[in-house]
Amino acid sequence: MSSEKKPRTVSVRRMLSLTATTAAVGLTATSGVAGSDLWQQQAPSFAPAPVNAAASVEGEGEGTTGQIKKEGEGSTHAEGEGEGSAAAEGEGNAHAEGEGEGSTQAEGEGEGAARGEGEGAGSGDSDHALQRDLSFMEGHLHAGMTLYEAGDLAAAKTHMGHPIEEKYGAVAEPLAERGFERLRDQIKAVASATEAEAPVAEVAEAFEVVRATMEEVREGISVKDQVLGLAELVRVAGAEYAVAVEGGTVTNLHEYQDSWGFLRVVEAELRGIAESGDEGARHVAEEALEYLEQTDAAFGDIQGEGEMTLDPSLLYGAAAQIELEALELD
Length: 330
Hints:
two-stranded antiparallel ribbon
């Protein structure tokens, strides 16, 4: 199939479509705390955990759910400093914010990396990685914008600050090479307006400027690499979600919100490709949207309330299927 992409225009309709999607099947789960952004290439084995609870995670010690554990020994972990092939605030193999070595940990230092700022292959040196990382940042901003509109200013401020804090270092060089250095200041403007508790319309306008620039960047990325990058972001969302519902309840609301925001951006980007791409691109995007729809059952609203099936495998499965669709493109 052809991967040639026709120009896309950022529209108010697409902006609105981002804020509209939330789904439902399963149970109510609430509450949580801010935590890490995780990256994991393969899904651990999870079973649905339909339990209602409100708790908080982010502690130290060992605790496992499938292959996920905090602050122990293992092979995949977070936001750490060390050596490896895909880095985020350090060099490493695959990480998520955790102290020590662990098989997908939260907050701290260790060896390994797969997302975030730092050095290493996979930190933004390919087109699909750039697409993934742009959409990662946009997902944080989208979650923050939704929370800001809902009046949850504290949570909104946290999410709006994360693109610069966690990810921009991974995209700074490829963006500079393409002439889009202005994106950093535009993202900072959104965060600053949020911190100043500016009117919603002002924050939304600043967010629109960021999205428009990101769309310009994406115009230089093939449809195949765009969809591959989106598949990778769904996998990241799965890792975030796995931490959010560890133990069978929504125990980490921040990670849940990250995952929610990432998937809303993936949906909007796939819809844009379906509307503006050639026949092959439209087919792939439409198929990918059907797979993405399978993740709806894992979510309630952005505050983790409503009926849901707490099963990270819904996200991991969708990621794998979307990736296979992308590989059909030339």
